[in-house]
Amino acid sequence: MKQTGYIKEEMGANTPLCSILLFAFTLLNISHHSSAIAIEANQSVSLFVNASSKAPTKKIPETLFGIFFEEINHAGAGGLWAELVSNRGFEAGGPNTPSNIDPWSIIGDESSIIVSTDRSSCFHQNKIALQMKVFCDICPAGGVGIYNPGFWGMNIEEGKTYKLVLYVRSLGPINVSVSLTGSKQTLATADLVAEHVWKWTKMEVILKANGTDANSRLQLTTTKKGVIWFDQVSLMPTDTFKGHGFRNDLFEMLKDLRPGFIRFPGGCFVEGEWLRNAFRWKETIRPWEQRPGHFGDVWHYWTDDGLGHFEFFQLAEDLGAVPVWVFNNGISHTDQVDTSVILPFVQEIMDGIEFARGDPHSKWGSIRAAMGHPEPFDLRYVAVGNEDCGKKNYLGNYLKFHSAIKQAYPDIKIISNCDGSSRPLDHPADLYDYHIYSSANNVFSSAGKFDRASRNGPKAFVSEYAVTGKDAGTGSLLAALAEAGFCIGLEKNCDAVEMASYAPLFVNVNDRMWNPDAIVFDSSKLYGTPSYWMQHFFRESNGATLLASSIQPNPSNSLIASAIIWKTTENDKMYLRIKVVNFGSSSVDIQISIAGIDSNLLKSIGSTKTELTSSNLMDENSFQVPNKVVPVKSVLANVGEDMNITVSPHSFTLLDLLVNSNNIRTVGSSSVDKSSY
């Protein structure tokens, strides 16, 4: 994410020219948020596409468009990771007592119950446990105890089952009622009864809900006087994706993007404000009860690290995406490790690579195998740090990591934090990382950023791009259109750009640390922003063939287009896809001429037009109107090598022309569900 002093366009800046244009647009009663220069009404332009077998083409990398997951906005904890209990081990206050048990709270008053923390846990990595002293001889009918509201409410659904696991001990017998309680009724309940639990005892129960409430909570209560200790209380839905722990609806939103890669576990989350709070992969591969968790001090919340090193690789595999591991290189936002003593950090990363790729009989590969995945994960890319170029020890540290990794794994591509788009890097790298967060006009204008980038040196990894500031709102059409233009520029420069991903991916509306985001959710609902739907237009680009195309004339530079050939896997159909972004405020008539394909090869039946637009540039989706700005598909008539279309103002248009493939070049395949828009 954004850091001062790194490769960034200035956020939200308006140039004097933009101000003049905005003033002029206001006088003309034209939509006020776009600073793109409008094409005059009724102007016609020509779009030339060369599909001839003799014309130059580019093979788009299989990895060009992917996703970037960062633990920000409660994206994982309280989001994609389906654990319903927040602060399950009572560790959020750190290792000292008294600890911070929030959001746990008590049921009852001080005359009947006192709750405190001590260091009596059986898990030495996380020693904090909760002690509950019950004083009442005749307790209230509902009992006294503790409850956990989860992450702003637990979504409990009728007919579904939930697995509760907890550790408990007591000096005497226990009779604890566990329940899932909604705002109006108890949705599920069970009793934990035991005579001898003077030693820590693991207890499990399956709870089946008899009702639905998105704002439920877990309660642990008793009517029996005594002292009970609880630790590591977990509640998980039993229907997570493949049982891998991922919340189904959020996972499907990712799956629908068909990402070529996934970058994880974050940007600033990896660095930490201080190194002591950086993500440490080795702390996240233990059994979940033994993971100490840590405070993400950049985004200011505690994570139990149920979503850890193993789970990220599993997520990549479940998505069919190539994993891109970003690791800490001994540098945080505040402190750094000197290169002279960086070798222990290097060894930790080498162990992490062995965990992912090692033989199941190797030291770290055997741990992966014991976790249920004997086959190696497909780790091909690693990024040395995040946004650290220019910091005192970065280059020295980077070279140590580079040397060790290349010696042991020469096939792994290594990503540098330093920008190589304008001048050659002064160190070896396979890719360089480029981030851009800026106004809509700047992002759209950056479509040509890589036009003159070297084709011989390291390729670009645009791992974080988005429109931010007032143009973005909390996810506007304007932002999506600017990003669409930028992505078409990346597609046209696919020989210089290997990967690109929007950021951030997720936001829980109860912890919106960053605007905008691709997918918005709470405990039960979700929707995609226009920027999320914009990415759907590029789902079939990975592995496709880029054709030469040009727009003439384009006097205001508010149009940008590309053309690809792609092929489905399920029915072997071939399509010529044309994408056009109209960033201007007037509709445009486009005369499309396709060279190299006879009209007889283009099929009207099966050809479609998909458009992303709305009546107002600043329109957004919401929980109330989740589909206000989404792609709309229609049948495309009058298909031919010469055809006319009109693109709406402020729109992103996609044309899929079904092609008889017997007489056209063979291209890579790309799976697609044609009914998914």
TrEMBL record:
Sorted UniProt keywords: Extracellular matrix, Glycoprotein, Hydrolase, Secreted, Signal
InterPro entries: Alpha-L-AF_C (IPR010720), ASD1_cat (IPR055235), Galactose-bd-like_sf (IPR008979), GH (IPR017853), Glyco_hydro_b (IPR013780), Glycosyl_Hydrolase_51 (IPR051563)
Catalytic activity: Hydrolysis of terminal non-reducing alpha-L-arabinofuranoside residues in alpha-L-arabinosides
Location relative to the cell: Secreted, Extracellular space, Extracellular matrix
Main location: secreted
Keyword ATP-binding: no
Pfam families with a match to the protein in the record: Alpha-L-AF_C, ASD1_dom
The protein's Enzyme Commission number: 3.2.1.55
Sample GO molecular function, one term: alpha-L-arabinofuranosidase activity
Residue stretches making up the Alpha-L-arabinofuranosidase C-terminal domain: 463-651
Domain of life: Eukaryota
Top EC class of this enzyme: hydrolase
UniProt family annotation: Belongs to the glycosyl hydrolase 51 family.
Name assigned to this protein: non-reducing end alpha-L-arabinofuranosidase
Species name: Penstemon smallii
